[in-house]
Amino acid sequence: MTYKKLSLLTMIACFFFIGLHLTHAPKQAEAFSPQVIQHGASGDDVIELQARLQYLGFYNGNIDGVFGWGTYWGLRNFQYEFGMKVDGLAGPETKEKLVSASEYDEAYVKEQIRQGRDFTHYGGTDNQAQSSGSSPQSGGGGGESADQQTTTTAVNVPQGFSQNDIQLMANAVYGEARGEPYEGQVAVAAVILNRVESSTFPNTVSGVIFEPRAFTAVADGQIWLTPNEQAKQAVMDAINGWDPSGNALYYFNPETATSDWIWSRPQIKRIGKHVFCK
Amino acid sequence: MIRWILIAVLAAGVAGTAAWGYQEHQEKNAILIQAENTYQRAFHDLSYDMDLLHDEIGTALAMNSESRLSPQLVDIWRLTSEALSNVGHLPLGLLPFNKTEEFLSNIGDFTYRAAVRNLQDDPLSEEETAQLKELYKQSGEIKNELRQVQHTAMENNLRWMDVQLALATQDEQSDNTIINGFQTVEKTVDGFSEGNVDSTVPGQSSEEHQFQFLTGKKISEDEAAEIGMELFNVENEENLTITESGDGADIPLYSVSYRNGEKNAYMDMAVKGGHPLTLLVNREVGEQEISLNEGLKQAEDYLATFDFENMTLFQSNQYDNIGVYSFLYNDDGVRIYSDAIEVKVALDNGDILGLAARNYFMNHKDRDNPEPEISEEEAKEMVNQDVEIQEEFLAVIDNDLGEEVLTYEFLGVLNNDTYRIFINAMDGTEEKVERLDGKEINYAAGF
Questions:
Q1: Which of A233, B136, B275, B277 is paired with B120 by a 20 to 30 Å CA distance?
Q2: Is the ipTM of this complex over 0.85?
Q3: Residue of B nearest to A112 (CA)
């Protein structure tokens, strides 16, 4: 009886193993998804693109999964050297040429990225020699979250902004306008940016936000509530050029506003509870 | 009798003390928050200054003409003094942070000395350029460390008041992230041997041209509602609200908003002609199904449905599952930077999530672009010889004085950094140099 059970288990285990093997093998042989990769894209395809370009010596930056300028020039030089149309787009022909000319050690690259190591992927060099071995930053726990879908170690940020600036603005927007409609949140973020550009206000995002008596959420500490995704999205929209406030520098809630002065400003429009003005 | 009076007096006294205590407590809290805010501002400003400093030094490296370099160096000098004053605002008194301050004042000294001398007669020597390069690298490292501290501080909601307390009581516990972070920064600097926000689209008009190209006749609210329903792609008029703008608006607008639980949309429309200036659709965006490139097709098709002609892609960016595309007006092969339009596409099904055409309508006009007076080759001579030029365009940008000028635009590479350089096509002046970045280490990647 137990013998039977054991053999059954072994068989199941065997099948499992084979099954794993089968599903795993074709995935590694397959290269790139069918998408045309262009400047600004991010994800697995970009990681592969960067790794393959680096293998051939066209790309010297970090393999971080974000198609930035370095990748762009690498790709263009590759297209030039291989006699293709130089357009900086990784289309079917370019990808085919890349795949046949280079090798891509996906397991190695992904492993390095997961571990957060400094590494390179040049052709003709032993992998071991190309990895820094230890993780450069020991800070932050729970590094082994392998279930994370995006393995990119960089992210796109709008020119001139850091993720931290965006986070700080999201905090302010959430504290000031969390009950407001989405466009009202974008408008509040836009007001912060309009103030940064205005000559009568401080020239930095943090300067504008922490200016004394400028925002009630800062004065009463509500700015330190954890912002949701929507507030962050609103900030991104404002940075990328959306301004539903109509170029406003001030806004107020007419139900709670106590200052007469604010009523004297030329009003532009009302979104949700806020009146936006010049 | 006396007893009762005594009780009453005492009760009143207790109540009064309680009220007074509560008020004091409130006041103390308000002051604590205010002090905290001052620290926070100094801290965030400091990280921003370091970021900008790194950027500006990098830009200085790619500059060629001495007449541009001097103001650039002055700017760096100004930034170091600002950063230093921000360090001074932080309660770091008991923390050894002097190496970093020294580093900052070194940059300041170096740039000040170089800026005040006549660079025309006495340009930067090779040694000085090498030194600048070294400073560029070092400031980059400090910037990254500081940004990392900033990220952790914000992620964990750390308070500077706590830092101050921890420092003041000289506690042995050493898991205060801010203190540790600053110590790392300090260590980074120790390892060295002795030794603005631009808008996302550069050269964009700060001076506002007056909506010259906004044509058509005035439309009514009903017509606005119709256009709104068409653009939002909805049929239910009941969920639509329309308001007209007040006196403060630059031009009269209709604001159309649509609410329907899952999908909310908002649009600003010019009363004159009913042109959409801003459009935003807010909904959950699912898993990415289409590529950034396919999204571009959607954006281009969308632009074609309006009267926007000759728009060429300027840049594209993917933020999670959303593609943002920026287009510039192409005037017979000349890119007009101030006539910009942004389009936002959901990469789950290719829906348009937004359109920002305010800049376009504000600045667009019939331009009579002059012929360049110097050749492209001559313009290239004006670019720093170390910059490897990869792409070139003709472009109209707004210079520092806010005037539109015709320029040769060069995209070039110097030490793995990409720069955008504008050379005046009339007299060869170096109008603008910019270091292009647009990506950053993912602090939240979790390693």
A1: B136
A2: no
A3: B447
